[in-house]
Amino acid sequence: MFTKLLELFFEHITNWGLVWFGVVFWGSIFNAALFFFLGGANNLVLIVLPYLLGLLLGLMGKFKGWSWIN
Amino acid sequence: MDQLAGDSQANLSIEEERKIARTFMGRIEWEMIVIGLGQVIVWVATWGLVVNNLIPLWGGFIIATVSTACAYLPSHAGQHGHLSGKHQNLDWLNTFISQISLIPLAQSHHILKATHMKHHAHTNDPRKDPDYRHSHVDNWLQSAIQIQNQTGEGGLIEVVEKLSKEDSKFAEALEKGGLVGFLFFFAQMTVAVIYPLETLLLWWVPRKLAVSYLGIIFSYEPHKDLPIGRYKDTRFWTNGLPRFINHSMQIHVMHHMYPRICHFDEPKAIEALKPFMIARGIPGAEKIPEKLRFNPTISI
Predict the structure, then answer these.
(1) What is the DSSP track for B54-88?
(2) Is residue B4 within 8 Å of residue B268, measured between CB atoms?
(3) Which domain holds residue B79?
(4) Contact A33 B148 (CB under 8 A)
(5) Which ipTM value was assigned to this complex?
(6) By the CB < 8 Å criterion, does A6 face chain B?
(7) Chain B contact for A50, CB < 8 A?
(8) Which residues of B163-174 are buried (b: 16+ CB within 10 A; e: fewer)?
(9) B8 and B33 together in one domain
(10) How confident is the model over A32-67, as pLDDT tens digits?
(11) Fewest 10 Å CB contacts: which of A9, A13, B52, B270?
């Protein structure tokens, strides 16, 4: 059971790893950059926007073959 | 050694060439162990100094970029078994030091070793050389960009799949290394959540710059436009910079002729083997100076 779950997990990461990398890695960096340049944001859109940009980059990475984002 | 080199002038046979080359093999390349561990210590210390606001992030970026550029060569020595030399009981040192040295590059020793051995076996073969795509391009900028897209669609994957079908040990090594790859993948994401800008400027960007730099000096310059063949696939080259700034890759030919000779022994091995290199028609061999030790060889 555990092995099967692990297998599914690795399979998922193999296929969707770049997208997760976009959201988590690039989302965090975009968020920090936004904070650095604009200061703290109270606006929900400004909080979510960096992670959406990260998601977009991750999707571009997956579907356009931009492995350099990783 | 000098006696051997002197005798060889009359005898340029392959047996004599091997006899001389063997005298440079088998020692523990302690210099690479020092560089491998040293650069990781510098890299980790840089992280500590930046995170604790003891040095600015831009300063850390410069230090991390330079130290990361030195991360591959010790791993390369480990891939070829130079870190244990002829001492089989110390073989673990090759994997251990190589993997530690590769932390700033976020790469797996097993994967790099497997693909690098295939590069040696099939140098300049478009179907089987994993380095072909960033070696055989029009200029260094294309090489620098191409190496960043190795795992992309139509990239290295096709070559790797072909090699995996032909060689089960190669496939096994990739699978083994894949776990380390996953570990680096999650480590980068985790650290980015905690220290986002630091991860970008101390890890991701230095890693990308180092990989491009390594692709140019390790692959593109020594192999571009050259055919397949033991004495034809690598050249002596120069880009006007001192040898030491290019990781001595101007003399990468020696490594392809005899991969078991340690990196730091290559200059004196070339001095001894120069007549053989000229006789075999190695590209650029006729231009190499008599003395290479401590010579920056700016104008090969």
Answers:
(1) SS-HHHHHHHHHHHHHTSHHHHHHHHTTTTTTT-G
(2) no
(3) 28-228
(4) no
(5) 0.91
(6) no
(7) no
(8) bbeeeeebbebb
(9) no
(10) 999 888 877 678 888 899 999 999 999 999 998 888
(11) B52
- Of B171, B206, B228, the one marking the end of a domain is B228
Q: Which residue of B lies nearest to A17 if distances are taken between CA atoms?
A: B185
Co-location of B214 and B266 in the same domain: no
Last residue of a domain, one of B169, B195, B228: B228
Same domain, B204 and B115: yes
Q: Which tens digits make up the pLDDT trace of B3-18?
A: 555 554 568 999 999 9
CA B272 from centre of chain: 23
CB-based contact A17 B185, cutoff 8 Å: yes
Is residue B94 a contact partner of residue B84, using CB atoms and an 8 Å limit? yes
With 0-12 / 13-18 / 19 or more C-beta atoms within 10 angstroms meaning exposed / middle / buried, residue B260 is middle
Backbone phi and psi for residue B9, each to the nearest 5 degrees, phi listed first = -60, -30
Quickly count: other Cβ atoms within 10 Å of residue B64's Cβ.
Answer: 27
Residue (of B223, B229, B234) closest to B147 by Cα position: B223
B54/B137 same-domain check: yes
Cα–Cα–Cα angle for B267, B144, B161, rounded to 5 degrees: 95
Same domain, B153 and B251: no
Q: Please answer whether residues B246 and B220 qualify as being in contact, where contact means their C-beta atoms are separated by less than 8 angstroms.
A: no
